[in-house]
Known about the structure:
This protein is α/β, with parallel strands linked by helices. The chain has eight helices and nine strands.
Amino acid sequence: MNRLRDGRLMVRNPGFRGIVYDVDVSPDNVDAIFFLTKDPSPMVRKVDEISEMGYRPFFQVTITGNGKALEPGVPDLRKAADAFRRISDRIGPERMVWRYDPVLLCEGAGPEEHADRFSEICSLLEGYTKRCIFGFFEPHIKLGAKIVSGVLREASAEEKRDVSTALLPIAESAGMELTSCCAGTALESTGVRDVGCIDEGTVRRFNIPFAKYTVPQREGCTCVRTLDVGTYGTCFHDCVYCYANPASSDRRASDPDSMMLGDSVKEGDETVRVGKRQRRLSDF
């Protein structure tokens, strides 16, 4: 919050670690803020202030009910759903998106079990969002040991279709559009649209200027260009399937007065100023 109050923050380029962006985040320079989280409860008491400062907040909240064995630090789904509803009451369901992602298939968690869990969460969020994004676990080199051991596995194309077919009518009955994330061609016959998470349709609907990526963030991604100001290794959730974990104890410490989240400018870093519309997001 201090970074928004000051209108300025710094963030390290995750791919080129020696580059630090010094970003003007004053309201005149920010078209919208998309908060992606599994625990929206701390934001309930802050969202009004964010709006009053002149920002347009949007939220994408991941609620899966995967359980403590897979998501040890994630709050109970009912707590997350309660915070989701309270924020939606303030900014409207059009700016709230529920993410059911990743869908993990394992013993005791097949399409029927996911349908039951999905239905439960739908009942908690009905009327508070108009869209649910879902996606499946994707292998990552950092998760190789867990894949080999059988803790995690990639769903087959048939399993993806089965899950989609099970979830789609539940979402529709709750007044939600069910869209997939980077599913490729696997779901083409199911009636589920593969749409970017921060998609062109949404930003157009809210008259938000946008640019497209020349090269997608990952295969199949159709999101519009954004500037991510998050930092790897600062999350407390410790999800088993997350390629960004584990977080070191020193990076988990957060100084509210720091210009950077869990980081600081180091000797030899190149600082790039991102200022008052002199450069567009398409330049990065």
